[in-house]
Design a protein that fits this description.
The structure holds two protein chains of two kinds.
Chain A: E1 5-7, E2 10-13, E3 19-24, E4 31-37, E5 44-50, E6 65-69, E7 75-79, E8 88-95, E9 106-107, E10 111-115
Parallel strand pairs in A: 2-10
Antiparallel strand pairs in A: 1-3, 3-7, 4-5, 4-8, 6-7, 8-9, 8-10
Chain B: E1 4-7, E2 10-14, E3 19-25, E4 32-38, E5 45-51, E6 56-59, E7 62-67, E8 72-77, E9 86-94, E10 97-102, E11 106-111
Parallel strand pairs in B: 2-11
Antiparallel strand pairs in B: 1-3, 3-8, 4-5, 4-9, 6-7, 7-8, 9-10, 9-11
Classes of the chains: A mainly beta, B mainly beta.
Amino acid sequence: GAGVSQSPSNKVTEKGKDVELRCDPISGHTALYWYRQRLGQGLEFLIYFQGNSAPDKSGLPSDRFSAERTGESVSTLTIQRTQQEDSAVYLCASSKNRDRINYGYTFGSGTRLTVV
Amino acid sequence: GENVEQHPSTLSVQEGDSAVIKCTYSDSASNYFPWYKQELGKRPQLIIDIRSNVGEKKDQRIAVTLNKTAKHFSLHITETQPEDSAVYFCAASKGSNYQLIWGAGTKLIIKP
């Protein structure tokens, strides 16, 4: 597509429920990133997929968080047993990084998650 | 690993004046330095980037300078306008690792 697409745009869930967030990157972008951004705060790295390599999961805050990506297509971020502190905007970004050349990220519009 | 520090955290300037935001990085192998603008409630958007083989890059009212020796880079906005009000993030990365390491952000306020 023309841009990075995220769904849903808003999600309100009850504490303890599982949620699944979706990211559809720009076609041909090898890299996909998930970030969390709390209100008024910076970008908190969660996980990074590069092509068919093993993902970098070093930013996941707990084992309740997991993410998958099939090849260079759609990714899903799953949060199990949601807690109120999970409330934030979850941003996905993709990039055409390859051949040891870095390019900028294109961000999706995010999913605003509210845990009540 | 790489660390990026960004200053100031908040910057207030009079409309029409210039604004400068500075970032320092720790890994001398870093070779790509983008700047992002995030307006309230919106996604971060790339506004300008620079690679380590150049020292300065301009695009209309914005410019970025890079000092590899001192390991710092700066964003310069001239003739500031109300629409420049936003949070600005700097970042750094290197060819062997495609991850951007981010600064903490600078909130730029343009006073009318």
